[in-house]
Amino acid sequence: MVDLKTKIGNLVMKNPIMTASGTFGYGTEYADFMDISQIGGIIVKGTTLNHREGNPYPRMAETPSGMLNCVGLQNKGVDYFVEHIYPTIKDIDTNMIVNVSGACIEDYVATAAKINALKEIPAIELNISCPNVKQGGMAFGTTCEGAHAVVEAVRKVYDKTLIVKLSPNVTDIAAIARSVEEAGADAVSLINTLMGMAIDAEKQVPLLSTITGGLSGPCVKPVALRMVWQVSKAVSIPIIGLGGIMNATDAIEFFLAGASAIQIGTANFIDPTTALKVADGIKNYLERHGCSSVSEIVGALKVG
Amino acid sequence: MKKHLLDLTITENRFIGENHILMKLTSNEKLPGVVPGQFVEVRIDHTPTVFLRRPISINFVDYKTNELWLLIQLVGDGTNHLSTLKAGDVVNIIMPLGNGFSKPTNARDKVLLVGGGVGIAPLLMLGAELKRDGFQIDYLLGARTASGLLLLDEFRKYGDVYVTTEDGSEGETGYVTNHSVLRKQRYARIYTCGPTPMMKSVASFAIKEGVDCEVSLENKMACGLGACLCCVTETSVGHKCVCSDGPVFNIKNLKW
Fold first, then answer.
1. What CATH number has the domain bearing residue B160?
2. Owning domain of residue B131
3. Theoretical Cys-Cys bridge with A101: which of A127, A196, A298, B39, CB 3.0 to 4.6 Å?
4. Residue B77: is it exposed, middle or buried by C-beta count within 10 angstroms (0-12/13-18/19+)?
């Protein structure tokens, strides 16, 4: 009997599949296509202390096997979330997790403290890796000191499961992962988008309003797998892997590389039901391989 | 309106001129009801360069034959791939998406539907439903040249059709906003879809004449569901998603 139940810190999930922040709205946008409560966790849109309009259009460019975006954390701020959005999602019978971002440590702390008070939000994902904001965001995720400082400060006010989302735009992601583990993170998720750009050769202009943006989709999967592998050798807290997962086989590869759970991101745009298809496919794989839980294949990669 | 993820089967896929196709699709189940102006997201499989779905406006739904019509301009690898599909092929579609055009309040109103290029697509079904509901319809359709005027016989079923071409090869010469019908008729409402400069020009005319005007925007999209926030346009209340808050907007809400 295969049981997909997975634990990340104190977070208990029906299965190891989450939907990635910024690709799944608040979950309700996808409710017409499936029972979204069957997804292990739904990480809602990046939330900041204050309202943000985000970057100008165009914010998206299709690239080979992927896409670039520069949305820039458009959201109405944490108070709006608490008053208007939380009441509409709190009764969804799965883990509703809030992705928290900020321009300075005080913003992260204030936002996390407000979310901490919400009974039906069992975890936050601290976004120290957004490539699309001028201040904060990725700036905290690209140095060990910055990452340590923001996680340590948030840890003091946040007592539920604290996941930290790491940037791939660094020389040594394992070192950053160790810093956030030491600062009190319960888990790390990786990777956020890779910095990239796209150009219209005929018009000789960039395709994004901000010139550079974050690359996602299957084209980043090899990079993500490599980083999950490296981080799994460096920390003992659980890893949530993401980056270009389109199907169950992709997900299995992340488990083998050392991830305890995975997120579906860009694939939601192609097939809105990807998360549940991946859950079925993982179950099928585990049955075929005589395993009863995902934990049996986490980090089980056979290397010479 | 509930959104559906459907595998539809192509019943007909033919070229209209050199650069457009009219694809008709059906299902064993009854197609979901749609509001004119809504769109679909078409999945493009088996091409090495296309990754995302393509948003395509709904040209018409023939409820009698249970067929969805998509009028598609061939602009890149995705739409070119769609042109190679044959009757019997299956296409995965999310529909219906976005908000359609609203109906005028006064049942005897005369309305103008202005389309340019492939932007004429959603105006066919809009005209059909407005005519059914008793409104008087004039179509004003523009293209660069005569071969770009598509499906004129279909449009003539629902209203008088006035045309302009930039090279004068059919109808009046110039842009839609230069057409003489605009000086002769008085409309209660204008609906427009087409290239942005054309829509802005129609919007200016509507503002000048004090006529209510709805436009259908087309921005680059990823999800089509209001989740990714990529396709925003600036409105009087900040960034709004073209996919889920639009694609139809009243011009009074846009910063035009």
1. 3.40.50.80
2. 101-216
3. A127
4. middle
Taking contacts as CB-CB distances below 8 angstroms, the residues of chain B near A269 are: 52-53, 222-224, 228
Same domain, B133 and B121: yes
Question: Could you tell me which residues come within 8 angstroms of residue B218 by beta carbon, excluding any fewer than 6 positions away?
Answer: B55, B57, B119, B242, B247
B171 shares a domain with B147:
yes
Last-in-domain residue among B97, B117, B140: B97
Strands A17-19, A261-264: parallel, antiparallel or unpaired by DSSP? parallel
Nearest beta carbon to residue B227 from set A25, A59, A65: A25
Radius of gyration of chain B (CA): 18
Task: State the Cα–Cα distance between residues A221 and A254, nearest whole angstrom.
Answer: 9
Q: Is A130 a catalytic residue?
A: yes
pTM: 0.96
For residue B239, list chain A residues with Cβ-Cβ distance below 8 A.
53-54, 57, 74
**Complex ipTM value:** 0.95
Please list the pLDDT of chain B residue by residue as tens digits (256 residues): 999 999 999 999 999 988 999 999 999 999 999 999 999 999 999 888 999 999 999 999 999 999 999 999 999 999 999 999 999 999 999 999 999 999 998 877 899 999 999 999 999 999 999 999 999 999 999 999 999 999 999 999 999 999 999 999 999 999 999 999 999 999 999 999 999 999 999 999 999 999 999 999 999 999 999 999 999 999 999 999 999 999 999 999 999 8
Neighbouring C-beta atoms of residue A154, cutoff 10 Å: 27
Q: How many domains does chain B have?
A: 2
Q: Are B143 and B184 contained in the same domain?
A: yes
CB contact under 8 A, A53 and B229: no
**Which of these is catalytic: A70, A130, A219, A291?**
A130
Last residue of a domain, one of B74, B97, B120: B97
**Shared domain check, B212 and B105:** yes
Q: Give chain A's count of helices (H) and strands (E).
A: 10, 16
What CATH number has the domain spanning A6-52+72-196+214-296? 3.20.20.70
